[in-house]
Amino acid sequence: MSPTLVFGILAVYFAILMLVSALTSKNTSNATFFTGNHKSPWILVAYGMIGASISGVSLISVPGEVGNNGFSYFQFVLGYPLGYLFIALILMPIYYRLGLISIYSYLQQRFGNVSYHTGATLFFISQSLGASLRLYLAASVLQMAFFDAFGIPFFVTVIIILALIWAYTYRSGIRTIVWTDTLQTTLMLAAVFFSVIAIGKEMNLDLPGLTKTIAKSDYSKIFNWDWRSSQNFFKQFLSGAFICIVMTGLDQNMMQKNLTCPNIKDAQKNMITYSFILIPVNLIFLSLGALLFLYINSKGLNFHDSSGFYFDKASGIYHNTDQLYPLLALKFFPKIIGISFLMGIVAAALSSADSAITALTTSFCVDFLKIKGEESHTTRRWVHLGVSMLMLAIIMVFKALNDKTVINAIYTIAGYTYGPLLGIFMFGLYTSRKLKDNVSPYIAILIPTLCYLISSNSVKWLGGYKFGYELLLLNGLLTFISLWIFSEPGNKTRNLNTVKWNSSK
Questions:
Q1: Taking each helix axis from N to C terminus, what angle separates 62-69 and 324-331, rounded to the nearest 10 degrees?
Q2: Average pLDDT in the 107-122 region?
Q3: What CATH code is assigned to 3-408?
């Protein structure tokens, strides 16, 4: 694809985003930036959240993982509705009735300032790393498609992308993002749709033919019942439910969008609708992955280029699978597919990065700087810029050290950072005990360290057992037990209907 064409596409796309930003930035305030003045239509939020949650990870890494693991990821997805139901019925009523801007303020009311800042710090670490990894993936694609042609280094590429994100979000924050995410979700889904159609034409298959070909292939295998495997169904299903709870329900990034709805009923409709949409969407992404591998096998393609993607015959494993889809879309498929892919990956990257930067800004301002009301627009904007620079630094470190697929890296990080967050929230919700507030940060460090040791030695210690995403559950459980040990019976009365806490000091 011509670099000039790529530049034209990107220029038009960013011009549209800046137009949306201008239209949504009238009469802005801190409340607009943090909560969108609670005026977002729920159906718009539900649709836009698809792009934010799927991101470039699903667009590139999920199809790429099919080559080695088939459709096993779908076991993980099947657990989503259970997790989202918990969020809609348990967590969201609490957030709305307490009138929270930062969801971690709940921990302050339940336990105290130390636990509150511990939870906010865990989020800040996890979100900074996760969002940076997603943006790194997309920036790598843009580097290959455009910036390499002009000799522009990767460092500058990332700066340009972050600068553009900052430009359209710094004024209205979440209000702008709710609308831009709608556009970006549409572009991302369109990229997948056009790619599937293009592969079908290349393989002389219509839609029924594509479906049958995928179903008959080895790539379509979903269920794994081997208890020792990290891909075991029960591990994946439960992990999907709990990862959903922590990466949406306990995540300021995702919940900030939900909290822009006018009321709890609209927010719940958004969450439940969104949960069921994600299942067929992820199935389509997996189907795309199967088609990509079926295509290269049918064509006898064997790559030996700078992308790093290759098949190791000795081990029977594909390596650097994140590069397969970009490689085919930009160099092998018709130009229209390359264009749609490029638009899709840019949209996916921005949809996750812009909301992450806004959520991190909100958390730092509310949780650490204690900005209330309309105290300081200038401080908020400096924090917004600082968060962008932090992501730049993390991306460059990850580029230097990365040796695994992005999707596994993200969920591994989530297991160690969101695990303690899961434990402390569940302890607050389902016990009435009074926590020794000062122990929270020590537990948040000790338990992930212990889980790492267990996971690293599980094959030797546990008869061949390999941890997958269920490491999150172990982390949360051990955190819960530790909090119980360092707590005492309290005189707290919990009423889930009003979510009010009465405590005797």
A1: 120
A2: 92
A3: 1.20.1730.10
